[in-house]
Amino acid sequence: MAILIIAEHDNSTLKGATLNTVTAATQMGQELHLLVAGCDCQSVADEAAQISGINKVLLADNPVYTHQLAENMAQLIIELSEGYSHILAPATSNGKNILPRVAALLDVGQISDITAVESADRFQRPIYAGGAIATLQSLDAVKVITVRSTAFEPAATDNSAPIEAVELQIENTLSSFVSEEIAQSDRPELTAAKVVIAGGRGMGNSENFSLLEQVADKLGGAVGASRAAVDAGFVSNDIQIGQTGKIVAPDLYIGVGISGAIQHLAGMKDSKIIVAINKDEEAPIFSVADYGLVADLFDAVPELEQKL
Amino acid sequence: MKILVAVKRVIDYNAKVRVKADNSDVDLNNTKMAINPFCEIAVEEAIRLKEAGSADEVIVVSVGPKACQEQIRTALALGADRGIQIETDDIPESLNVAKLLAQVVKNEEPGLVLLGKQAIDSDNNQTGQMLSALLGMPQATFASELTLKDGKVQVAREIDGGSQTLSLSLPAVITADLRLNEPRYASLPNIMKAKRKPLTVTTPETLGVELKTHSTLIKVTPPVERSAGILVNSVDELVEKLKNQANVI
Ligand SMILES: Cc1cc2nc3c(=O)[nH]c(=O)nc-3n(C[C@H](O)[C@H](O)[C@H](O)COP(=O)(O)OP(=O)(O)OC[C@H]3O[C@@H](n4cnc5c(N)ncnc54)[C@H](O)[C@@H]3O)c2cc1C
Ligand SMILES: Nc1ncnc2c1ncn2[C@@H]1O[C@H](COP(=O)(O)O)[C@@H](O)[C@H]1O
């Protein structure tokens, strides 16, 4: 049986999380189909067709899918679901929004945020903010799964799979799009960056985050934050790292003025190298840091920027 | 308009979870339990809507063993009007919870159904979406702002790239994110008053819902612990280590 993967995209480019999800799918089965649903998104389908392992791209290009709202997206996936053993999406805000509806309409459970595939029906996932790892056996005929992208390598892109148009136009009479504010940044995407420098409450205010931006720019990295920094209004919500924010696993994570609460660690403790800069030597973040520097960040960060 | 809020009893967010020695599950014996933080935010929002005159009754529902009445009482102390406990031996999987809640929604006919975006024990992030699908209602997940107007609800949602605003017809299902509001503390008089507020107990059988098993828990293991590294004495030493030892810059 085949596997249906829901592509993550913004109508113009395919998002990297799709590639990691494809890798997870290859560990569950052979025949992989990728659904690109959106509006004026041919360029996304063209990119998707290059992903190794994909046998077919399904392209539902219609104004009704412009904002990929959950109500009709879920219904579209249901209409296409016949014959699939697995339906997968990246555990992005879109995937999390849409996929549980698909599961409920199929009367099956959803396995959220998997981090390892043991077999076609056995998966690992973190629970309790990563405080424990559960291994689950799915008993459902169709496995509906979201995939944590940092746990799987991205698939290669040396393919040219056929693209098949899906003509289904499913209206959404329940909800409508009003507006969107998408943060613009020239830095790499937080969840895919090789270097992440994150600031916490210790940053004091929003202006001080420019100290971190300067370091990020030297290292080609992205800037993240703790919940406390977001709640205090220093930075916007889309860069919160943690149990209920983004999951990152860069080669280098630098936490600045962050104490290291379990909810924050849940989002970064799989980073390869962790650096902590904090003036309190008792801060729990030091217990997971490869390199700790006990210092005032307002001295240490400018010096770091200078010496890189 | 009635507002229905689903609240889950979970481990307190400050408590450390232990895995049982036989790896069969986590060990919650003698662990401090609390109302799921996201559910508390949902309760707060419902109460604020009532205080603003947009709602006239706030009903809280919890699915689980008798102990979850504690969390219902907490919500009543914060200002909810009455509670419903759906009695089950253990807390069932999300789809079962969604089916039970759907039945209560059909009986109570609320204009809004509020849930937390995620339970901090299972970290599932799915019950609200499932409930909304089962009821054929619109949904807004990860809500950071909610406004009722002209018979609709406008919701700002936290999404990966920033934020998005949707307009939903009513009745609708909304799941609360962290920044929707800051919950109040219950006052002592309100905690006393909550003890006399109505709390009814029902069962899956009475609601006509058959619970199913969708997955089995094979094992639960502790995560791989990171060991602490070293403290460096200066920025120079840090840069040197990152270059020559860790090879990451
Ligand atoms: C349901 C729930 C979900 C949550 N989800 C998340 C999540 O996804 N992500 C997340 O991050 N948190 C989350 N939290 C919050 C989490 O529990 C912590 O409150 C939060 O991570 C603390 O942020 P912080 O480390 O920036 O602040 P604090 O804990 O206040 O730490 C600030 C640190 O800065 C240091 N400092 C201050 N000034 C300086 C200076 N000049 N130089 C150097 N160091 C300095 C201090 O020593 C301190 O260690 C969640 C909480 C709940 C209840
Ligand atoms: N046993 C339960 N009883 C009541 N509400 C629940 C229960 N389980 C989940 N919920 C609701 O669904 C939300 C999301 O939970 P979950 O999908 O399990 O992460 C929670 O914040 C609650 O509002």
Automatic annotation (TrEMBL), chain A:
| InterPro entries documented for this protein | DHS-like_NAD/FAD-binding_dom (IPR029035), ETF_a/b_N (IPR014730), ETF_a/FixB (IPR001308), ETF_alpha_N (IPR033947), ETF_asu_C (IPR014731), Rossmann-like_a/b/a_fold (IPR014729)
Q: Does the keyword Methyltransferase apply?
A: no
Q: Does the keyword Electron transport apply?
A: yes
Pfam families on file = ETF (PF01012), ETF_alpha (PF00766)
The organism's place on the tree of life at top rank: Bacteria
Q: What PANTHER family would the database entry show?
A: ELECTRON TRANSFER FLAVOPROTEIN ALPHA, ELECTRON TRANSFER FLAVOPROTEIN SUBUNIT ALPHA, MITOCHONDRIAL
Stated family: Belongs to the ETF alpha-subunit/FixB family.
Q: What is this protein called?
A: FAD-binding protein
User: Which organism is the protein's source?
Assistant: Neptuniibacter pectenicola
Automatic annotation (TrEMBL), chain B:
Instruction: Alphabetically list the UniProt keywords.
Output: Electron transport, Transport
CDD domains, A to Z: ETF_beta (cd01714)
Answer yes or no on keyword Transmembrane helix.
Answer: no
Electron transfer flavoprotein alpha/beta-subunit N-terminal domain ranges (all copies)? 23-211
Q: Does the keyword Electron transport apply?
A: yes
Q: Which domain of life is it from?
A: Bacteria
Task: List the PANTHER family.
Answer: ELECTRON TRANSFER FLAVOPROTEIN BETA-SUBUNIT (PTHR21294), ELECTRON TRANSFER FLAVOPROTEIN SUBUNIT BETA (PTHR21294:SF8)
Sequence similarity = Belongs to the ETF beta-subunit/FixA family.
Q: What is this protein called?
A: Electron transfer flavoprotein subunit beta
- Organism from which the protein derives: Neptuniibacter pectenicola
Classification of source organism:
Bacteria, Pseudomonadati, Pseudomonadota, Gammaproteobacteria, Oceanospirillales
